[in-house]
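re: ur question from the group chat, yeah i did fold both. here u go
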Amino acid sequence: MPKRHSFAYGRTLVISRLILLLALVALVGVTVGLTPSFPTLSLAILSLVLVGYFVLLTVSPLLTEHWVTRSRLILRQGWYFRAVIPFAEIEKIEAADDAGRSRVPLGIHRPMGQPSLFVTGGRQNLVSVRLTHPWRFWQAFGLTASEIIFDVIDREGFLSALAERGTSLPPIEADRADAELRD
């Protein structure tokens, strides 16, 4: 049994961010072209901001995946979101009904008044993880969520990897009252 299984997520978010970046570059190009003496320092700062946007929000999601390890689920989206959830903290994992959700937000999104945190790169093959108690996520402005909804490209493979991990022995918990190994 491998130490971890990796699962890619949708790329719709990356495509929309790339289109936004291209529009911003075109806007800066038109502004520089129409301004007779555009300040060099301002152009350098704008260029650095656009390059930072490109690396952090467009390239980094292409380099990360969700992981299922022996004892936890690790959800990632780029270099800006990471949630390490031990299996003991998960109440229920199930395929989310794609048709039941009229509009799934892309990216990291926590709708006000709802206990769900969306960590989506696409709007298909959604999976819902219900936590045993609400968690606070700094990536969602410190709001709490008791359910995380995310997408994976291979939902059936993801759910079968979780089922496979569920049949393996749980890790030893040294803090428990009866943690000694017995024959």
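okk and heres the other one u asked abt
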Amino acid sequence: MKLPTLETGISTRKRAWPCGNVQRGFTLWELLIVVAIIAITISMVQLSVGLSDETRDLKKVGKSLGKLFHLLSQEAVFESRNFAVSVEDQGFIVLEFNEGEWVRSEQSLFSKIKMTESQHSELIIEDKIIDISTKTQPQPHILILSSGEMTPFEWRISDRLVQSGIVLQGNVLGGVMMVGPEPLQ
């Protein structure tokens, strides 16, 4: 018996499976394999994008400093204490007003934020660049008062290694906003 064929020589009869059903579509295993390949590809792309972000250290420092100012502001208001941040070229020191003078804060939480050797600071208060060169006694630059007020400032942190920089802008109400990272000019 001869099967009916098309002009191309291919049989028009559908192939039947042992259970009598006609195969139409993909099996569950084929679908699972395709989904697994797509998932692995997407995770590899996300991983490679995350590792190639050269400015992630700069972003991390900026976000951590923003959180630090928020924490200091809350602690100043809730505990009726006055704090200050003394900005240095490669970092900062948190000071506390105690018995009529500014002394280094003993809380280790405030010293956890570290800047890298390639990152440098510039502080601008009231449109004046502040001399932040290292001195024997830390100077209170940014005041965070128990009334909830803060010295308005612009703290520029640049990273010479990746040729980028961020700007932290603080307002009188204690809010801090980060701009950047942007390429250095």
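fwiw on the second one: The chain has two helices and nine strands. The two ends are 84 Å apart (CA to CA). idk if thats what u expected
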